[in-house]
């Protein structure tokens, strides 16, 4: 069964905190950080979830700031047991559908082959690197997507 992709609701918050912990371990966002994300849903955040009874994935977008037409993908993850089944692609498809006519940027660790593979498949291109950006000295890769017409 393919999960439904839908906007997050406030009652998803506890489940998202647990899923984020499962996906990112010590780099997970805290309960407070997730509460901030939910507080900003009416302002500049979009949180989409992949729901198959339980939540199995999510994507968080930062919408354009004043005078800028750039959306940022802040986070995307799929529960480890269901990776490589197309859910990340489903989430990114739904996210990019909300970004028509805009530029989308994201930042990813240079060693994160699964995420980079996903992004490249959608036409994201590397535009720069931040040397030693992450703990342990790992580079951040900045990638950009623009809708092709
Ligand atoms: C990145 C992530 C969201 C991908 O989700 P997913 O559901 O596994 O992705 P999909 O099954 O839709 O894969 C789509 C494409 O991405 C690429 N891809 C996904 N996983 C890959 C891997 N391990 N190695 C290489 N390419 C990969 C492939 O091109 C794949 O297409 P294919 O399966 O037809 O070859 C998932 O691996 C994840 O949650 N990682 C941990 C969290 C994370 O690092 N997030 C990104 C930074 S915020």
Topology record:
Elements lengths: L3 E4 L5 H12 L6 H9 L5 E8 L1 E9 L7 E9 L8 H11 L5 E7 L3 H9 L3 E6 L9 E7 L3
Helix pairs in contact: 1-2
Strand percentage lies at 25-35%
| Helix/sheet category | alpha+beta
- Based on CA atoms alone, the radius of gyration comes out at 15 Å
Q: Main β-sheet: number of strands, strand sense, barrel status?
A: 7 strands, mixed
Helix content: 25-40%
Provide mean pLDDT, rounded: 94
Kindly state the number of beta strands: 7
CATH fold group: Aminopeptidase
Mind telling me the CATH class?
A: Alpha Beta
At CATH level 2, the architecture is: 3-Layer(aba) Sandwich
User: Which ligands appear in the coordinates?
Assistant: coenzyme A
What is the count of DSSP helices, taking H or I runs of 4+ residues? Answer: 4
Oligomer: single chain
How are strands sequenced across the largest beta sheet? 1-2-3-4-5-7-6
Number of domain units: 1
Unreliable segments of 5+ consecutive residues: none
Principal-axes geometry comes out as globular
Domain N-acetyltransferase: 3-148
Pfam families: Acetyltransf_1 (PF00583)
Keywords: Acyltransferase, Transferase
GO molecular function: acyltransferase activity, transferring groups other than amino-acyl groups
Describe this structure in words.
It is a single chain. With 149 residues, the protein is α+β, with helices and mostly antiparallel strands. It has one domain: Gcn5-related N-acetyltransferase (GNAT) (Aminopeptidase), CATH 3.40.630.30. The chain is built from 4 helices and 7 strands. It has helices at residues 13-24, 31-39, 87-97, 113-121, and strands at 4-7, 45-52, 54-62, 70-78, 103-109, 125-130, 140-146. It has a 7-stranded mixed sheet with strand order 1-2-3-4-5-7-6, sandwiched between helices. Helix 1 crosses helix 2. The site of coenzyme A has 20 residues, from strand 4, helix 3 and helix 4. Coenzyme A is lined by residues 23, 75-78, 83-89, 108, 112-115, 117-118, 121.
């Amino acid at each position: 069964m393919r999960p439904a992709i839908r906007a997050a609701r406030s009652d998803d918050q506890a489940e998202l905190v647990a899923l984020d912990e499962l996906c990112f371990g010590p780099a997970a966002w805290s309960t407070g950080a997730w509460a901030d994300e939910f507080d900003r849903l009416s302002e500049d955040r979009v949180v989409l979830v992949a729901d198959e009874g339980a939540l199995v994935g999510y994507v968080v977008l930062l919408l354009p700031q004043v005078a800028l037409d750039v959306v940022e993908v802040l986070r995307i993850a799929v529960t480890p047991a269901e990776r490589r089944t197309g859910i990340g692609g489903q989430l990114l498809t739904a996210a990019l559908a909300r970004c028509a006519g805009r530029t989308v940027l994201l930042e990813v660790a240079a060693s994160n082959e699964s995420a980079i593979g996903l992004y490249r498949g959608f036409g994201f291109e590397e535009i720069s690197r931040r040397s030693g950006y992450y703990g342990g000295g790992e580079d951040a890769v900045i990638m950009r997507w623009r809708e092709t017409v």
